[in-house]
């Protein structure tokens, strides 16, 4: 239109700060969590003096990719998310590539993983510039609060040679029940997920049965991260028919999950955050009816809007939609909450590792993200609605420098205790 002036909010500067926070000795199919979890905090500063926040992984390879994107992002309008996507793609040489996940057992889209924290930071900046919460920018919140599930882990009482973390050991059904009882009492969770793949399947079935006896009304899930063969997966699914709301990644890969799904003939919904982790995984998974529920995760699906796209695709193909998590801080919890609030069909309680994080270790100012009845109220302030605590950021960055960890490696860490340990992949 002649004479119209369209203002833009260009990216002036981007800061990426790696941080480390304490993580208990949580067991999984590939080993045990190391004493610190690594994350990165992304700050996108605009010409208007606004700072948008994002959070992502903190391993060296990913940090290098994030840094490579920065020069390409300078000058891009934070409202032009297509240009943000092009800038990230250009920084990776334009080539589509897949990158191993934190545990080296899932291959995700590298560009989508890099794009995610910048997209979230741009949305936070947009919200701050327009005075609207991110959920409004995503089409509006369809719920005021987002339900999360208790996330139980088998665990040791302490890291090798370390002090006890206060949660105690959980190495049998009674230990798991005690742990979940505390989580439910403290946070009010209304659903429970057990991380499996640690002990022989029958022991994990017993833990699920003990949970069912203690919590007769709560939906339960079990996730052995592909530790079982298709035969074992079918047997466990049949045993837990009517007990689990879904069974997550019992066996690796789309063909394996498809075989289990076929043999179960709809008796148990299968869920995944391992065999469908990028858009190109959807056509084969749908064609083979490999899964009935997809766990989204904006950290590797390319940010909040692309995860909403995933939600629509799931709806079209009659798939359920849930949400996955890794160890994370408050910027991610805020982003997950806005996303789930603005995605109508994301109606399972979302995963979160939140209860495993120390209350005094976060990069956001406390007060906004509180759990009540197992749910977090959707922040209503501009953008993500959370404020960066710069002192805490500096402390957790110093901890990153001191801790010496530069990539997650649960298997090598486990081998310091059990030298013969072999990851459990289709092992039972
Ligand atoms: O933190 C863990 O040990 C989990 O196993 C995590 O890494 C998984 O990505 C995740 O929670 C899952 O649902 O598979
Ligand atoms: Mg999983």
TrEMBL record:
Gene3D superfamilies: Enolase-like C-terminal domain, Enolase-like, N-terminal domain. InterPro entries: DgoD-like (IPR034593), Enolase-like_C_sf (IPR036849), Enolase-like_N (IPR029017), Enolase_C-like (IPR029065), GlucD-like (IPR034598), Mandelate_racemase_C (IPR013342), Mandelate_racemase_N_dom (IPR013341). Coiled coil: none annotated. SMART domains: MR_MLE (SM00922). Its cofactor is Mg(2+). The keyword Magnesium applies. It is an enzyme of class 4 (lyase). Keywords: Lyase, Magnesium, Metal-binding. Residues 173-267 form the Mandelate racemase/muconate lactonizing enzyme C-terminal domain. Its EC number is 4.2.1.40. Pathway: Carbohydrate acid metabolism; D-glucarate degradation; 2,5-dioxopentanoate from D-glucarate: step 1/2. It catalyses: D-glucarate = 5-dehydro-4-deoxy-D-glucarate + H2O. It comes from the Bacteria. The keyword Metal-binding applies. Belongs to the mandelate racemase/muconate lactonizing enzyme family. GlucD subfamily. This is glucarate dehydratase. It comes from Kineococcus endophyticus. The lineage of its organism: Bacteria, Bacillati, Actinomycetota, Actinomycetes, Kineosporiales.
């Amino acid at each position: 239109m002649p004479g119209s002036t369209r203002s833009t909010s260009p990216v002036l500067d981007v800061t990426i700060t790696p941080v480390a926070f304490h993580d208990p000795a949580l067991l999984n199919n590939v080993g045990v969590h190391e004493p610190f979890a690594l994350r990165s905090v992304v700050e996108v500063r605009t010409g208007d003096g606004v700072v948008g926040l994002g959070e992502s992984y903190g391993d060296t390879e990913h940090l290098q990719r994030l840094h490579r994107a920065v020069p390409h992002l300078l000058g891009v309008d934070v409202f032009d998310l297509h240009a943000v996507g092009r800038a990230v793609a250009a920084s990776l040489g334009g080539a589509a590539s897949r990158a191993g996940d934190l545990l080296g057992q899932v291959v995700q889209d590298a560009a989508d993983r890099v794009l995610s924290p910048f997209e979230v930071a741009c949305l936070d900046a947009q919200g701050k510039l327009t005075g609207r919460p991110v959920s409004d920018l995503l089409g509006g919140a369809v719920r005021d609060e987002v339900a999360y599930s208790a996330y139980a882990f088998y665990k040791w009482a302490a890291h090798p040679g370390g002090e006890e973390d206060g949660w105690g050991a959980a190495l049998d059904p009674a230990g798991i029940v005690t742990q979940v009882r505390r989580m439910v009492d403290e946070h009010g969770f209304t659903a429970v997920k057990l991380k499996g793949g640690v002990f022989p399947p029958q022991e994990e079935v017993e833990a699920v049965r003990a949970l069912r006896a203690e919590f007769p009304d709560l939906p339960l899930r079990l996730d052995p991260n592909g530790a079982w063969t298709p035969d074992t997966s079918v047997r466990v699914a049949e045993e837990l028919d009517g007990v689990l709301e879904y069974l997550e990644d019992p066996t690796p890969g789309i063909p394996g999950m498809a075989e289990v799904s076929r043999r179960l003939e709809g008796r148990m919904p299968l869920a995944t955050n391992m065999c469908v982790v990028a858009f190109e995984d959807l056509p084969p998974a749908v064609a083979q009816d490999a899964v009935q529920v997809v766990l989204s995760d904006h950290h590797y699906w390319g940010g909040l809007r692309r995860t909403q796209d995933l939600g629509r695709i799931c709806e079209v193909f009659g798939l359920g939609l849930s949400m996955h998590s890794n160890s994370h801080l408050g910027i991610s919890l805020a982003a997950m909450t806005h996303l789930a609030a603005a995605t109508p069909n994301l109606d399972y309680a979302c995963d979160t590792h939140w209860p495993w994080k120390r209350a005094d270790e976060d990069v956001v100012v406390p007060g906004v993200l509180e759990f009540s009845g197992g749910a977090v109220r959707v922040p209503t302030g501009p953008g993500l609605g959370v404020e960066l605590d710069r002192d805490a950021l500096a402390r957790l960055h110093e901890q990153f420098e001191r801790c010496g960890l530069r990539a997650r490696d649960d298997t090598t860490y486990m081998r310091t205790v059990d030298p013969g340990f072999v990851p459990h992949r289709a092992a039972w």
